[in-house]
Design a protein that fits this description.
275 residues, mainly beta, heat- and protease-stable fragment of the bacteriophage t4 short fibre, domain 3, 18 strands, 9% helix, flat
Length: 275
Amino acid sequence: MVSKIHRTMVTGFDGLIDIGDYCWSARNSKPGWLKCTGEEASRTTHSLLFAEIGITFGSGDGSTTFNLPDPQGRSVVLAGSGKVAESFAPAAITVATDAITVTINADRWLTGMKVRMTTTGTLPTGIAALTDYFVIRVSATTIKLAASLANALAGTAVDITAVGSGTHTLTHSLTARNIGDKGGEEAHSLTTAELAPHNHGVNDPGHAHSGSFRLGQSAGGLTWAYGGTADNASQEVTINSNTTGITIQNQGSGAAHNNMPPYLAIGNLFIYAGV
């Protein structure tokens, strides 16, 4: 009985639920809601929903239908850039240690986060405009900046020699995403550039090098020769190369690895169409 009343409230309150709203449900169908499985929907029957999302998720047959969202097999992310920012006075910078005191808990500024600094005056000496830096979290109230991710992970900070002037602002923006954007892959094959530094073994069954040399007469007297007759020629030494039987051991098969994190399917995603 409770479930029925709740369903009636959800489908009847257009003032609380707008066209294009989403909801999760363990149900396979909900009156007024369309299941997000990528199927085509009528542009006429669902004209209100079509007016909201258009062909963001697919153009259907190109004239009478459009596609619904299809998050199956994908993680759902929010659109936008997710900006985190904090402003501070130059006095928050300690030149001797290159540290910046933050008023927002530094848990929001994690080691490796990419940031940029802007100012209403002059930037601290050592910090360049329109340049990406990487956070080094020192404590709950202190961070430093590094010139690269590798430096941030190593704890190597940018050398700040003057605090600048005005009000400085540190900004971290996530990758901007628009509604309908897709990304990622279930399986990925590493490229050469993505491989970690590693070694390969060498198989050498044993080999020999042949050679010959000639030694001429020196200023102190006669010398001897192998493979020729001693004369007044300059010293000559020849070693013949030989790599017969040497092989480099191959490692790996080139198979793609699974990129998917642990997951749990909890139900179906619906979008409100009104009809």
